From TrEMBL, chain A:
One of its GO terms (cellular component) is membrane. This is NADH:ubiquinone oxidoreductase chain I-like protein. It holds the Pfam family Fer4. The lineage of its organism: Bacteria, Bacillati, Chloroflexota, Candidatus Thermofontia, Candidatus Thermofonsia Clade 3. Residues 190-251 are annotated as: Disordered. Residues 76-105, 118-147 form the 4Fe-4S ferredoxin-type domain. InterPro entries: 4Fe4S_Fe-S-bd, 4Fe4S_Fe_S_CS, NADH_quinone_OxRdtase_chainI. Gene3D superfamilies: 3.30.70.3270. Keywords: 4Fe-4S, Cell membrane, Iron, Iron-sulfur, Membrane, Metal-binding, NAD, Quinone, Repeat, Translocase, Ubiquinone. It comes from Candidatus Thermofonsia Clade 3 bacterium.
Length: 251, 668
């Protein structure tokens, strides 16, 4: 159909247009850049853009979306000066390549488990960045990081650098709040709602106790644990979760 | 979408008794390995038998109730192996199931048999039927089964690679197979990796989660364990210092002598085959064309064997094409696969149901979200749950955007194969990157999205993300597809190189179980979104583009047309999603320790490459008992030889490009 070669010419027209548009785009960019500070590209290019735009990594970087996920880290509660992790083991169970190792702390006298990890390893050579650990953690204690430039010098023990231990994994919750603002605010709201609910339940209970004629002493004793319950790292939901997890692992 | 999974109808005692003897005679052979294995998995006791669909009832009526009996859960059992070919010929010719969608096997170690499962389907659409046969596992764990299953390659050409895979993974012998060699592992591999009593190196346990991780989980690097310890299996008498083998001897010999499975002599070469001589030592004396006088005016050409790949830009990964050339013309072609084999299916059987979702991303890594959808809807069917409305829309938007970006990629690299080096490819990769930006902002990752969950998805779209999707779907991508067509469709060089190249007519395509754009370019309007609708595709207005040239050019045109149709679906979904409740993305409570009721299912979706099927068997536990991936890239490769023979070697590259394979899915 048509004259021989028109198809090629039409195609060449497209490449020519790309060529010109790209220069036009560059010109705009250079004029923009004449200011003092380097403009940071907010996205790869706008959908209206017609030319080719290159983000010149590592000189320029695109901002990472909040949901971006890379090798996980452990959240340290700066307010309570404590790990958020209770070593319940759910992250180790949902981990598809099984790259999480946790040693649970035991009370030296009673030998009962203490809700705190003694050791915590993530083998980043195995981790597939799927994000399950962060998604299924009931305590918001493990989160996916934004730090994607992990590389180490092959010094004495190259493997050891890629196996992140607890000290390497732990990061303050302020860092978590800075990279995941939406999630952080939702967690705060959830926690506030939960505490309000607990408080309301405790008050209702206290009222019910008070309503009983003979329960004067009990009513006075009951509300006391309610404020205390919020202080150690959330002992309320942790026990049932652990029991649940135990059940899960035994299959 | 899938066949019925569990069947609540109670088994009739009479039929149950009839089915049982088939399993009986082999139990002594299997008793030992079964006992040696720690308890964990077991095929369910006294499973309910399937109720027969009209087609299967007709089959039973024709062959008699002693040959065709209902199988547990789904489908029928062919009790007499010698009748299998008759049954399948009847299924193909009389019942119209002209396409063998899937063949796989399951190792029922406790019962002592291997079950081969066939899923024939109609190219006109509808659900596949399930036909099963059983072979005893045999007494020698490293030898192939004593009882052979008749190969179905004369009836369905598409069975060739799948039967080879079953032979490779389970050691099931197929009688009458044209080239029964190992396909994913190498010649000389010790054992049958998907059998339940085969353990991989560094074996830790049959099922995850492993006990060593918590509560006393001291980290240990797998690499630091002694590689020559008891974590690796060697054949008895194996001497690593004097190991010397040529795993390709069988491959070359079958190409040179034309005799498949020629007995291998002490030198590692087939005995009947003439010893190659001369330069390159690959030229067969018998294959040389010793010309008669009449041929003497023509250019004299030698036959040579050329290895293309595994490290070759034109093979789209680590595929190796071994082509026999007469001058520049391809006279024979064989594939050496498995360079990317990691036994995805064995990993899948160790994993819990949830663990498998991120692994499916790694099958066809160009369109991970489509793979997740296939797995998730199959498991949902078995669990009997339904995702929420909003999740359905989000899944469709993601799956169709995946199709667009995958086709951009396929067309870009097809043009690379044609010699238009990287200009078109990079134009389209730009568009693809914009779609991946959306994936990244929603799911957190560009390729390995891990987005779908049983009963929903992991994250909702925010308003910004919806706006981003709308900008792409309504403005940018339509414009870019127009530009793509302007750039390529009428180009005379492309037309000259592609029209009539790689021709494979419709009947042959169906017989080869070809699916996806390649089948639709041969004039067969087969698309699972219409043929056996899943998810909410029945709500959208879209067409199945069909072209009739059955060549590389039409495969290209089908892909362009499909991108436009996918765009229509995304646009409709983006318009309708406002009617759903934001945030309502997960049906039921979010859980990580799913238990799937005992049963089996074959679920499939239309990925950009073709039909992606998952055949799953559950024993009611936390882990799949069998996890099989019916991969379209792998099965489409069956037809490559017939498409290529007779063309020039430069066209072999283009024809492979038009099949659009991804090695992550081919080798699994």
């Amino acid at each position: 159909m048509g004259l021989m070669g028109t198809g090629i010419l039409k195609g060449l027209g497209v490449t020519l247009r790309h060529f010109i548009d790209t220069y036009a785009e560059d010109l705009k960019y250079i004029l923009n850049k004449s200011g003092v500070q380097q403009p940071r590209p907010l996205r790869r290019q706008s959908p209206k853009n017609r030319g080719l735009v290159t983000v010149e990594y590592p000189r320029e970087r695109l901002p990472l979306p909040e949901n971006f996920r890379y090798v996980p880290f452990l959240v340290y509660d700066t307010e309570k000066q404590d790990d958020k992790c209770t070593s319940c083991g759910i992250c180790a169970k949902v981990c598809p390549p099984q790259c999480i190792w946790i040693v649970r702390t035991e009370d030296p006298i009673t030998k009962r488990p203490v809700p705190q990890p003694k050791e915590f390893y993530i083998d980043t050579t195995i981790c597939m960045n799927c994000g399950y650990c962060a998604e299924f953690c009931p305590f918001d204690a493990i989160k996916m990081d934004h730090d994607y430039e992990l590389s180490y010098y092959p010094t004495q023990e190259p493997h050891a650098r890629l196996v992140h231990d607890k000290s390497r994994l732990t990061k303050p919750d302020t860092y978590h709040a800075s990279i995941h603002p939406t999630d952080w605010h939702r967690e705060l709201a959830d926690r506030a709602a939960e505490e309000a609910k607990k408080k309301a339940a405790a008050e209702a209970k206290a009222k019910a106790e008070a309503a009983k004629p003979a329960g004067g002493a009990a009513a006075a004793a009951k509300p006391a644990p309610a404020p205390g319950a919020a202080q150690p790292s959330a002992p309320g939901p942790e026990k049932p979760a652990q029991a649940d997890a135990d059940k899960g692992s035994r299959e | 979408m899938a066949e019925e999974t569990t069947n609540p109808t109670p088994a009739e005692p009479a039929t149950a008794a009839k089915a049982a003897p088939a399993a009986k005679p082999t139990s002594p052979a299997a008793a030992k390995p079964a006992a040696a294995k720690p308890a964990g998995h077991a095929a369910p006791k006294g499973p309910p038998l399937a109720t027969l669909t009209p087609e299967l009832a007709q089959l039973q009526q024709h062959f008699g109730e002693s040959i065709i009996t209902p199988a547990p859960y789904v489908g029928v059992l062919v009790n007499d192996l010698s009748k299998l070919r008759d049954v399948m010929t009847y299924v193909r010719d009389q019942l119209g199931f002209d396409m063998l969608a899937n063949v796989t096997a399951v190792d029922y170690i406790k019962e002592g048999y291997l079950q081969v499962v066939y899923h024939p389907q109609r190219s006109k659409g509808g659900q596949p039927i399930t036909i099963k046969v059983r072979v005893p596992r045999g007494s020698d764990p490293v030898a192939p089964t004593e009882v052979a299953v008749p190969s179905l390659t004369p009836i369905y050409a598409g069975a060739e690679f799948q039967e080879r895979e079953i032979y490779d993974m389970y050691g099931v012998r197929f009688e009458g197979h044209p080239d029964l060699r190992r396909i994913l592992t190498w010649e000389g591999f010790y054992g049958w990796p998907l059998r339940k009593d085969w353990h991989e190196p560094y074996y830790e346990g049959d099922t995850k989660p492993f006990d060593s991780r918590w509560p006393g989980g001291h980290h240990e690097l797998a690499e630091e364990r002694v590689p020559w310890g008891d974590n690796v299996n060697y054949p008895p008498g194996f001497d690593p210092l004097n190991f010397n083998s040529d795993p390709d001897a069988g491959l070359y010999d079958s190409m040179l002598s034309g005799v498949p499975n020629a007995p291998i002599g002490p030198n590692g070469h087939a005995q009947q085959a003439p010893q190659p001589q001369g330069v390159g030592a690959a030229v067969s004396v018998y294959d040389r064309n010793y010309n008669t006088l009449a041929d003497e005016e023509e250019l004299q050409t030698d036959q040579i064997i050329v290895n293309m790949g595994p490290q070759h830009p034109s093979t789209h990964g680590v595929l190796r094409m071994v082509v026999k050339l007469d001058g520049e013309t391809v006279t024979d072609l064989k594939l050496a696969l498995g360079y990317l084999h990691r036994n995805h299916e064995k990993i899948g059987e160790r994993n819990t149901w949830l663990h498998n979702i991120p692994y499916t991303d790694r099958l066809d890594y160009i369109c991970g979200l489509a793979n997740e959808l296939g797995y998730v809807i199959t498991v949902e069917k078995m669990m009997g749950i339904k995702p929420t409305e909003r999740a359905e829309y989000l899944r469709v938007i993601m799956a169709e955007l995946t199709r667009i970006e995958s086709h951009f990629w396929a067309i870009g690299f097809l043009l690379n194969d044609l010699g238009a080096f990287y200009t078109p490819a990079l134009y389209f990769i730009t568009e693809r990157d914009l779609i991946l930006d959306l994936f990244e902002s929603v799911t957190g990752s560009r390729l390995m999205c891990n987005y779908m969950r049983f009963g929903g998805v992991s994250r909702d779209f925010t308003e910004d993300q919806l706006a981003h999707a709308r900008e792409l779907a309504f403005d940018r991508i339509p414009r870019k597809i127009d530009e793509l067509e302007q750039l390529l469709t009428e180009n005379e060089i492309i037309k000259a190189r592609t029209i009539g190249v790689g021709y494979l007519p419709a009947e042959r395509s169906i017989n080869y179980s070809l699916t996806g754009p390649c089948l639709r370019a041969a004039g067969v309007p087969y698309d699972i979104r219409r043929a056996d609708p899943y998810s909410i595709y029945d709500r959208f207005d879209f067409e199945i583009p069909v072209f009739y040239g059955a060549d590389v050019y039409d495969r290209y045109r089908v892909r362009v047309a499909e991108m436009r149709q996918s765009l229509r679906i995304v646009q409709q979904a983006l318009n309708q999603i406002d009617q759903t409740k934001p945030g309502d993305i997960q049906a039921g409570k979010k859980a990580y320790n799913h238990r799937v009721p005992a049963g089996e299912a074959y679920g499939r979706v239309e990925t950009p490459k073709g039909e992606l099927g998952f055949y799953l068997v559950s024993d009611g536990g936390q882990n799949p008992y069998r996890y099989h991936v019916r991969s379209s890239s792998f099965i489409n490769l069956n037809a490559l030889k017939e498409m290529t023979v007779g063309h020039k070697v430069a066209d072999a590259v283009v024809i492979l490009g038009s099949l659009d394979i991804v090695l992550g899915e081919v080798d699994r």
